[in-house]
Specification:
By secondary structure, the protein is an alpha/beta fold. Helix content is 43%, strand content 12%. It is globular and about 90 Å long.
Length: 377
C-alpha cells in the first residue's frame, strides 16, 4: 500500500473535525460579538431597563433587606430603609409630636413602577403636613410588599406594627386580595425556583439586552393571546367575575381577616381604616374595550357596578371600620392615564400610574379628615 495515501487518509478526518470546530467557533463568535456590542452600547447609554427582579433588596417573600437599594426596579430606583421598608430611614420609636400612620398593602402600596415621592402614601403625608398644626407632624410609613395579601397584612399588623407605635393603620386592599386560597393563619410561602427561573432571573439581573428582549417578547405573547394575564401571579379577577362558590369562599376569607385585624386594632387602641383600590376595567366602557383589544380580557358590563367594593364596605361596617372605595374618584378622574403603562405589557389593570397615586393620596387625605370619619387630629 502506498504510505503517502495512507498518511493522507488519516489526515482527512482530522481536517474535517478541525473545520467543524473552526466553523462552530466562528458561528459562536458571530453571535456573541453583536450581543456584547449591544449590551455594552446599552450600558454606555445608561438605558434604563424595566427590571422585574427584586432579589437585590428582597430578603424573603414577606420582608426586605434593611438599607438595601436597587437602581431600576420596574424602571424606578428603590431604596429600603433601616427598618426594612421602602422609604427614608426612620426610628422604631415614634418621636414626640408625631402622628404616625402605617400603610400596609401589596405592590400597589409599595409603589410598583413609580418613584417613592409619587406613591400615594407620600402624597398623603405631604397633604396632611400642609395643614398640620404647628406642634404636630404626620409621618406615613410604607409597609407595602409586592405579591402579598391579607395574610401578610395581618401578620405585619400583629407582629411588626406594635413596636412602631402607630396612631393609625391603613389597610390598602387590592381586588386580587379576594382569594379563595386565603389560609386561616398567615404563613409565608416557600417557593423553590426551577432551573429555568434561576437562569432567567440571572440574566434579568445582569443583562440589559436580555431584559429588553424578554419584556418585548412577553408583550407580543400577551397580544397574540398565548399568555393570559388572568393566569399571571398577582393579577386575579375573581372578585369582578360572576358570583361563584370560589368567590363566596374568598369573601369569607376577607371577612375573617378584616375581623381579626379590627379586633387587634381595637385591643391595642389603634385607629384603623381600609382603602380599596379598583382595577382599571371597572372604570368605564372605554376601559373594557381597551382590555378586550390589548389583552384579550373580556368582562361583562356588570364589573362597572363596583360590587366587590360594596361588600367590603359592608364587612367594614360590621366591625366598625371605615372603608374608602377609590372607584368613584378614579372613575371621575379617568383620562386613560391613571394606571401604569410599561414595556412589559401595554396596559396594567392593577397598578396605578404616578397620576393614579396622586389622585389616591389626595382622596385618602380628604377621607381621613372628613367629619364622618375623623381618624386624624
Amino acid at each position: 500500500m502506498n504510505t503517502l495515501a495512507l498518511h493522507g487518509s488519516r489526515k482527512q478526518p482530522l481536517f474535517k473535525w478541525r473545520n467543524l470546530v473552526l466553523n462552530g467557533c466562528l458561528i459562536l463568535l458571530g453571535i456573541l460579538v453583536p450581543l456584547s456590542v449591544g449590551e455594552l452600547a446599552l450600558r454606555l447609554l445608561h438605558y434604563q431597563v424595566t427590571s422585574f427582579d427584586d432579589r437585590s433588596f428582597r430578603r424573603s417573600a414577606w420582608s426586605f433587606r434593611p438599607s438595601s437599594h436597587q437602581d431600576s426596579y420596574i424602571g424606578v430606583p428603590v431604596t429600603i430603609n433601616n427598618l426594612g421598608l421602602r422609604g427614608p430611614d426612620t426610628t422604631l420609636e415614634k418621636p414626640p409630636g408625631v402622628f404616625r400612620i402605617i400603610g400596609v398593602g401589596d405592590s400597589i402600596t409599595f409603589g410598583y413602577g413609580v418613584r417613592v415621592e409619587d406613591t400615594f402614601l407620600k402624597v398623603l403625608e405631604r397633604n396632611l403636613n400642609e395643614s398640620a398644626p404647628a406642634n404636630l407632624r404626620y409621618e406615613v410609613i410604607n409597609a407595602g410588599i409586592p405579591a402579598t395579601g391579607l395574610e401578610y397584612y395581618t401578620h405585619f399588623i400583629e407582629n411588626d406594627a406594635p413596636a412602631m407605635h402607630p396612631d393609625l393603620l391603613v389597610v390598602c386592599m387590592a381586588l386580587n386580595d379576594i382569594d379563595p386560597q386565603l389560609d386561616p393563619e398567615p404563613r409565608e410561602p416557600h417557593i423553590q425556583p426551577t432551573v429555568f427561573r434561576s437562569i432567567n432571573g440571572f440574566f434579568l439581573t445582569h443583562s440589559s439586552l436580555y431584559t429588553i428582549l424578554y419584556v418585548h417578547a412577553k408583550s407580543i405573547l400577551y397580544r397574540l393571546d398565548i399568555l393570559h394575564l388572568e393566569d399571571n401571579e398577582g393579577f386575579g379577577f375573581l372578585s369582578i367575575e360572576p358570583r361563584s362558590p370560589a368567590q363566596d369562599k374568598a369573601r369569607e376569607g376577607v371577612d375573617r381577616y378584616i375581623r381579626r385585624i379590627a379586633n387587634f386594632a381595637q385591643a391595642h387602641k389603634e385607629r384603623l381604616a381600609i382603602v380599596v383600590f379598583p382595577v382599571e376595567p371597572q372604570l368605564s366602557e372605554r376601559a373594557l374595550r381597551l382590555y378586550a383589544q390589548q389583552l384579550h380580557l373580556y368582562f361583562r358590563s356588570e364589573v362597572l357596578r363596583g360590587q366587590p367594593q360594596r361588600w367590603i364596605q359592608e364587612i367594614g361596617a360590621t366591625y366598625g371600620v371605615p372603608v374608602l372605595d377609590l372607584l368613584p374618584a378614579m372613575r371621575a378622574g379617568d383620562d386613560g392615564q391613571r394606571f401604569l403603562r410599561n414595556r412589559s405589557i401595554s396596559v396594567d389593570p392593577v397598578h396605578p400610574s404616578a397620576a393614579g397615586h396622586h389622585l389616591a393620596g389626595d382622596e385618602i387625605a380628604r377621607f381621613l379628615k372628613s367629619p364622618g370619619v375623623a381618624l386624624i387630629p
